[in-house]
Request: fold
Amino acid sequence: MSEPQVPPPNGEKPYFWPIALNLGLLVLAALGSGANPNVLGAVVLVLVLVNSIAAAIMSFSGRVHYVVAFILSALLIGLIGFGVCALMLSNLGSMH
Reply:
């Protein structure tokens, strides 16, 4: 049996939803573009910019947890997205 989930300290909600949302959008963009590296690169750049702007807005409003979540999301999307684009452009993924 699985153990019940431990609630976050001080009754705060978890702030992982920006990361999950952006990873889902990245997968949808990859599937929708037919794995075109040019389109995927542009989508990754837009997602990184949007997350950076959202982190800046949240920092002005004083929501530190959201700032960390959006910065982590931007870093993960950049790392994963541009890594996938580089892999597709270098044709390392189709070597057997």
Q: What stands out?
A: The chain has a mean pLDDT of 81. The two ends are 41 Å apart (CA to CA). Residues 41 and 85 are 6 Å apart (CA to CA). Residues 64-90 form the longest helix (27 residues).
